[in-house]
Specification:
By secondary structure, this protein is α+β, with helices and mostly antiparallel strands. It has a single domain, classed as 2-Layer Sandwich (Beta-lactamase Inhibitory Protein, Chain:B, domain 1). The protein has three helices and four strands. It has helices spanning 3-16, 26-30, 38-45, and strands at residues 50-53, 57-65, 71-79, 82-89. The protein has a four-stranded antiparallel beta sheet, covered by helices on one side. The longest helix is centred in the first third of the chain and has 14 residues, at 3-16.
Length: 91
């Protein structure tokens, strides 16, 4: 195998590596139901990428992108430490 082919192969591998965002699958997001606690959600999806705090609620956000810009994101709004609603993008 030529050096050029190996370099191209390595470049393609690196491009598939996600950046610091969290990885999750849509199959996992289907498991999340209203009323689940944040601990239950995190045990399924892993640590969230970011979060936002509001007066009586907060949002946990999971996102995943590749170097090519393809990506997906899902966010859960929690009220009283339980899932109250969900929004997703990139399905």
């Amino acid at each position: 195998m030529s050096i050029l082919k190996r370099l191209i192969g390595r470049f393609v591998q690196l491009c598939r590596i996600p950046r610091k965002e969290t990885q999750f699958t849509w199959e996992d997001t289907i498991k999340i139901k209203n009323g689940m606690t944040n601990y239950e959600v995190i045990s399924i999806l892993g640590d969230p990428h970011t979060q936002a705090q509001f007066d009586n609620s907060y949002v946990l956000i999971w996102s995943y992108t590749t170097i090519w810009g393809a990506g997906k994101a899902v966010s859960y709004k929690f009220e009283n430490d339980c899932v109250a609603s969900v929004k997703s993008a990139g399905k």
